[in-house]
Amino acid sequence: MSEYRGYEGDSLEFLKNNQVIVGDSVKILSDITYSGIIMPRYEHSDDKHIVLKLKSGYNVGLEIVKIKRVEKIQSSEKIVDESEKINKIEGLPKILLLSTGGTIASKVDYRTGAVTPVLTAEELNSSVPELSKIANIDAEVLLSEYSENIMPENWLDIAKKISSYSNSDYLGIIVAHGTDTMHYTSSFLSFALAGFPIPIVLVGSQRSSDRASSDAALNLIGATKFITKSKAKGVYIVMHNDENDNTVACHIGTRVRKNHTSKRGAFQTVGDDPAFIIAEEKIQKNMSKEFYKTQEFQPKINLDTKIALVKYYPGYDPELIEHIIDRGYKGIIFEGTGLGHVGRVTYDSIKKANEKGMFLGMTSQCIDGRVRMTVYESGRDLLNLGIVPLENMISEVALVKAMWALGNTQNIEDVKEIMLDNIASEMSI
């Protein structure tokens, strides 16, 4: 039953006896007095606690045997937000928002207590009303997944959907996306849609919109301002610049990583300042070159996932490389130490992979800097074994680029040429 979602046994009886359900606003007297909304329980949880979402946005578990009194303040049916119809303002630019299921611009569904994604332009307007003053936004749900569940086949769907709007009257396209794998998606879109005529901006939030510290609204507003004011072609990620609410950073989609698990300013451009800094009234441009090498849009929406990312470490078992070879993989991106090294224990396996015609690329585990495999003898040995140094390309970006390259050609020499071609600012050279 959805009104008791996740509750069973003693906790279910507790809710029934106190005549409250999931989504009700209550005041509970226990060791102290708590006020909040009764939330669903995780399906594998015990039956000795109920979960309450406090006004601060945080959830607490309350042991039912310690609860002295429950007072219902408001039922779930009475506090459901009604979406207001919006009148689009003539003369404002049009922006398309595609949702892939991240927490950005999500809201609390008080009928269930769960955080759900905003699905319509009306809901979006209700959640972030400032947007309607900046642009007329059309919203569309493409998929609904946590970002760790977004797979390469989803990248293809997102790219095809965006490509279909290449001749539209939209000024730009926003993709709402979970943060954990956002830079993988932005990398694929950068290569598959090189030369796309309008900006593509991926936006996420580290904290959902029902929390007082949420970054969802400001990130979305920042992305909208960036599109309307900069009109810069390319694929970007827009997130908080730091823990403050003063600025939002706009990162090149192939030069960015999520470098913190939970900070609002978790995303950082590797080796440089963010491409743009978005403040209240102005946008500071830091990038000096064009995002794309080509200005002609020629979509190549293909990929081959038979690429492995290998992080070398002391004690690495070269049989793992043998397994990759035996599984029919077509390439390996090595994340080597320092300037681009792996131990000689792997050399025989690397030689075998090269003889099999696999693409072998080298990136570095270091956060910043360039692969230079001519400095030391070990690096030169690896060059002779067929490994291609990939400049200062981020390892995850190199993985995605290799998938894309092999999806468009099976010729290993062509793949090598593509991997060294700076298509979408993936190498800061």
UniProtKB/TrEMBL annotation:
EC code: 6.3.5.-
GO biological process, one term: regulation of translational fidelity
Keywords: ATP-binding, Ligase, Nucleotide-binding, Protein biosynthesis, Transferase
Presence of keyword Nucleotide-binding: yes
Lyase keyword on record: no
Domain L-asparaginase N-terminal: residue ranges: 94-286
SMART domains noted in UniProt: Asparaginase
Residue ranges annotated for the Asparaginase/glutaminase C-terminal domain, each copy included: 306-419
Residue ranges of domain GatD N-terminal in the record: 22-73
Catalysed conversion reaction: L-glutamyl-tRNA(Gln) + L-glutamine + ATP + H2O = L-glutaminyl-tRNA(Gln) + L-glutamate + ADP + phosphate + H(+)
HAMAP family assigned to the protein according to its UniProt record, in alphabetical order: GatD
Its job: Allows the formation of correctly charged Gln-tRNA(Gln) through the transamidation of misacylated Glu-tRNA(Gln) in organisms which lack glutaminyl-tRNA synthetase. The reaction takes place in the presence of glutamine and ATP through an activated gamma-phospho-Glu-tRNA(Gln). The GatDE system is specific for glutamate and does not act on aspartate.
Subunit structure: Heterodimer of GatD and GatE.
Protein name: Glutamyl-tRNA(Gln) amidotransferase subunit D
Organism: Candidatus Nitrosopumilus koreensis AR1
Source taxonomy: Archaea, Nitrososphaerota, Nitrososphaeria, Nitrosopumilales, Nitrosopumilaceae
